[in-house]
Design a protein that fits this description.
The structure holds 2 protein chains of 2 kinds.
Chain A lengths: L9 H14 L18 H16 L6 E15 L5 E12 L6 H6 L1
Antiparallel strand pairs in A: 1-2
Chain B lengths: L2 H22 L4 H16 L11 H19 L24 H6 L3 H12 L4 H8 L3 H27 L2
Helix pairs in contact in B: 1-2, 1-3, 2-3, 3-6, 5-6, 5-7, 6-7
């Protein structure tokens, strides 16, 4: 079937052609990027994450930290005759430990 | 049809699809973008399946029209599809500045059929497929649409000449 079958339709044809010309100036949004299913690609990431988690749980005692520079530790100790004496030592390793009740010292 | 092949065809028709979406959304660009996005999502999720019974353009236009109607219903901004009233415009009302405003004055189905035939160069049969109505009804809407649009153009010209 012909859509435009007589000459009087030419007016409409012109009107819609003008409309098309105007529309060509309108910005058409980009065709959306279709994301491919990444379910297979996620498997190695999942395995790596699980291994990292396991390593973190089963790691050895990591409380000993190796320092870049020597550290001088000065402690005050009580001697045999109840006198106080300074003990000065130098080390490259630092064992850090925080008392579970240390917050009481600051909070109260 | 393979997904990749369908994607390429959709890409080719994207520009035309956007303009049709815009026309189905009363020339609202933002709404047209949302509707088209929804259409692509429906196709990729397999909610709208191309069964190769018709041309891909006819099928795509049909999905766009249906989705736009869904959105309009959601927004409670529905148009009565059965409205078949002839245009009864007063002289003051014919002050449409653009062709779009002029076409918007037509009843929904008359507007659709004229756009599909004259703007998108589709046959009346294809327009009937897209609009999901019989060829006889399409012909009626087409004839009434042309008559009404002609009247609107004449009134607009008269209005402009009387200024």
């Amino acid at each position: 079937m012909k859509t435009i079958d007589n000459s009087e339709d030419q007016d409409f044809q012109d009107l819609f052609s003008e409309m098309k010309a105007k529309d060509s100036a309108i910005g058409v949004p980009q065709f959306p990027k279709i994301r491919k299913s990444k379910s297979w690609g996620l498997i190695p990431i999942g395995i790596a994450a699980s291994l990292a988690l396991l390593a973190w749980f089963y790691r050895g005692d990591g409380s000993i930290q190796h320092l870049d520079h020597d550290v001088i530790i000065i402690t005050l100790e009580e001697g045999q005759n109840n006198e106080l004496q300074f003990k000065i030592e130098s080390t490259t390793e630092l064992e850090s430990w925080e008392s579970p009740t240390s917050s009481l010292l600051t909070d109260f | 049809m393979k997904k990749r092949q369908l994607e390429n065809l959709l890409k080719e028709l994207h520009q035309e699809a956007y303009h049709w979406s815009r026309q189905c959304c009363s020339f609202d660009e933002d709404l047209a973008k949302d509707v088209l996005q929804q259409v692509y999502l429906k196709i990729l999720e397999g909610k709208a399946i191309y069964k190769e019974k018709s041309q891909i353009k006819t099928w795509l236009f049909s999905v766009i029209r249906f989705t736009a109607l869904e959105w309009k219903k959601k927004a409670k901004n529905t148009y009565s599809l059965e409205a078949e009233f002839d245009v009864a415009e007063t002289e003051q009302e014919i002050n449409a500045a653009s062709h779009e405003e002029l076409i918007e004055k037509l009843p929904e189905r008359q507007k659709e059929v004229l756009l599909l035939v004259f703007y998108h160069n589709l046959t009346l049969e294809k327009a009937a497929e897209i609009m999901e109505i019989s060829i006889g009804s399409v012909r009626t809407h087409y004839d009434r649409g042309k008559r009404n649009l002609k009247e609107l153009i004449l009134k607009k010209t008269l209005h402009e000449n009387n200024r």
